[in-house]
């Protein structure tokens, strides 16, 4: 069973790489591949980034993912979504004090401006993000 799981995860990663191949830095939703990628696309971003710290084995994370993608897509490019798998990037999770998944951290101009832990409704996330975005405009 473990070999099957590893092969499945490998295929999923390959699919993500292929579907994002040739994508620009401006892509609003992306998977973080390396620490350097995180620094380039999140820390140095010209707009706020919602960082979704998640795990492939986490059921609430799986339920939250499509909600986040829809909400970020609704923002018309004003915010980006970076997905960080804590099993692949444990050091990033530790850097941002992630103790539970799913955890959302909003980073703007290299600084953490807000965070949320746990599965939330789409309405709650929209309101939460709206507050973050209005704070950025002030």
Automatic annotation (TrEMBL):
GO terms for cellular component: mitochondrion. Residues 21-134 form the Thioredoxin domain. The keyword Electron transport applies. GO terms for biological process: cell redox homeostasis. It comes from the Eukaryota. Keywords: Disulfide bond, Electron transport, Redox-active center, Transport. PANTHER family: THIOREDOXIN, MITOCHONDRIAL (PTHR43601). Belongs to the thioredoxin family. This is Thioredoxin domain-containing protein. It comes from Drosophila ananassae. The lineage of its organism: Eukaryota, Metazoa, Ecdysozoa, Arthropoda, Hexapoda. The gene is Dana\GF11737.
């Amino acid at each position: 069973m473990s070999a099957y799981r590893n092969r499945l995860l490998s295929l999923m990663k390959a699919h993500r790489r292929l579907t994002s191949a040739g994508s620009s830095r401006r892509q609003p939703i992306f998977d973080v591949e390396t620490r350097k990628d995180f620094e380039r696309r999140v820390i140095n971003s010209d707009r706020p980034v919602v960082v979704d710290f998640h795990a492939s084995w986490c059921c609430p994370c799986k339920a939250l993912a499509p909600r986040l993608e829809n909400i970020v897509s609704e923002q018309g490019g004003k915010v980006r979504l970076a997905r960080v798998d804590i099993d692949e990037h444990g050091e990033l999770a530790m850097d941002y004090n992630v103790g539970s998944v799913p955890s959302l951290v909003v980073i703007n101009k290299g600084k953490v401006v807000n965070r949320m832990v746990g599965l939330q409704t789409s309405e709650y996330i929209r309101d939460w993000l709206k507050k973050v975005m209005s704070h950025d405009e002030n």
